[in-house]
Amino acid sequence: MAIQSARICILRDEPPREDADHVLYLMQQSQRAAFNPALELAVEEANRLGLPVLVGFGLLDGANGFPEANARHYAFMLQGLSEVASALEKRGIAFLMRRGTPSEVALALSKRAALLVLDRGYLTIQRRWYAEIEKGATCRVVQVEGDVVVPVETASGKHEYAARTLRPKLHKRWDEFLEELKPRQVARPAEGLKPKGGLDVSDPEKLLGKLTLDTVVGPVRRFRGGHGEASRRLKSFLKEAFEGYGAGRNKPEAGAASHMSPYLHFGQISPVEIALAVRAAKSGDPDDRSAYLEELIVRRELAMNHVFHTQGYDAYETALPDWAKKTLAEHADDPRPHLYSEKELAEGRTHDHYWNVAMREMRETGYMHNQLRMYWGKKILEWSPSPAEGFAVTLRLNNRYFLDGRDANSFTNVAWVYGLHDRPWQTRKVFGSVRYQSENSLKKFDAKSYEQAVTRLCEAEEG
């Protein structure tokens, strides 16, 4: 139950402030009250100092909104944070959401804090907030990693070439990090500790309506945010769909998906909690467990490694290996039989029927099976005037419609379409030696059954 020392980093080494009235935890990446090592460290420190815990959250909207986030993303996030506020209150922990950047909110609330605890994310905007906090804080600042299994620097000190180079490093270390984390008992409840200026998150839909957001892409019914819903989905998956996961995971119509990616993106469930549940599942066999942990840990943490070690992970010129850019440039002038605008792609108006079906699932429900995401991205490369334009359009559509868009996985998977974490293949038109994916890949699963499932899901969205 101890929090592993490798998860903890002291950013500002000051003694705890003696005239403080609370310990502050800025909740930013780990948006959950369960299995959250940053929260539990804050409780431990508050108990040691005889102080209550205040959890702060900075909410961005309007001109200062989170880049590319829209009402779909905010609705899901606010549902989760409403649950967080209620769960923290039951534990005797105060929760305060304020408009502002996480760094602005943290620095304002830390003026009376004995120390400030941060969680951790790897995107550029998140790292900028942490740097601003480290520079501007006047109290002790401790950061705790809670959203990967093996902390990124512990797993590897360099940008990894591919999954095969990171995999053995993760396998060597992950057992020491796959441990239960029980909630600590709060010694001093935060009665009366709630600074002014907070937003009421008890009614997520009402709060959503007060925010200035892009509402063209609206909330979905298919997924509801929060740790409780994530736990329910995980239990259902392990009981009803985990058997045969290793063989069925690449078949969209098989229903062999846990749908954890939106919850992981918003930090609403811990990857350690998921991994422990998968290991303990009574259904499934060793191949099913191995296949799931490969996706959850190796592939996901390869993405974290990529964004951590790559400046400009969201740009064509800086996100891709040199060999991929070279071969794509050599074939940039190849004839392209089909070209589509971003609007045509978003509306699913291409000649490829099943591509359009996949785009409909993404546009209307916020999700697409991984097998189809790769096909979807490869076709945008094929149908774009240039690889650089294709990269930008793929990323914009990904981040706009997917609930788990704007994630380390998103940036990495889009770059994979263009050669990242891959090797040269047979040379062909447009793609050069970057991996090609043809319509024949649709024959690997029952595409008609997939279309029927998408139709049912989209009809449910329409009510």
TrEMBL record:
<keyword id="KW-0274">FAD</keyword>
<dbReference type="InterPro" id="IPR014729">
    <property type="entry name" value="Rossmann-like_a/b/a_fold"/>
</dbReference>
<dbReference type="InterPro" id="IPR036155">
    <property type="entry name" value="Crypto/Photolyase_N_sf"/>
</dbReference>
<keyword id="KW-0456">Lyase</keyword>
<dbReference type="Pfam" id="PF00875">
    <property type="entry name" value="DNA_photolyase"/>
</dbReference>
<dbReference type="GO" id="GO:0003677">
    <property type="term" value="F:DNA binding"/>
</dbReference>
<keyword id="KW-0285">Flavoprotein</keyword>
<dbReference type="InterPro" id="IPR036134">
    <property type="entry name" value="Crypto/Photolyase_FAD-like_sf"/>
</dbReference>
<dbReference type="InterPro" id="IPR052219">
    <property type="entry name" value="Photolyase_Class-2"/>
</dbReference>
<keyword id="KW-0234">DNA repair</keyword>
<dbReference type="InterPro" id="IPR006050">
    <property type="entry name" value="DNA_photolyase_N"/>
</dbReference>
<keyword id="KW-0238">DNA-binding</keyword>
<dbReference type="GO" id="GO:0003904">
    <property type="term" value="F:deoxyribodipyrimidine photo-lyase activity"/>
</dbReference>
<feature type="domain" description="Photolyase/cryptochrome alpha/beta">
    <location>
        <begin position="21"/>
        <end position="152"/>
    </location>
</feature>
<comment type="similarity">
    <text>Belongs to the DNA photolyase class-2 family.</text>
</comment>
<dbReference type="GO" id="GO:0000719">
    <property type="term" value="P:photoreactive repair"/>
</dbReference>
<keyword id="KW-0227">DNA damage</keyword>
<protein>
    <recommendedName>
        <fullName>Deoxyribodipyrimidine photo-lyase</fullName>
        <ecNumber>4.1.99.3</ecNumber>
    </recommendedName>
</protein>
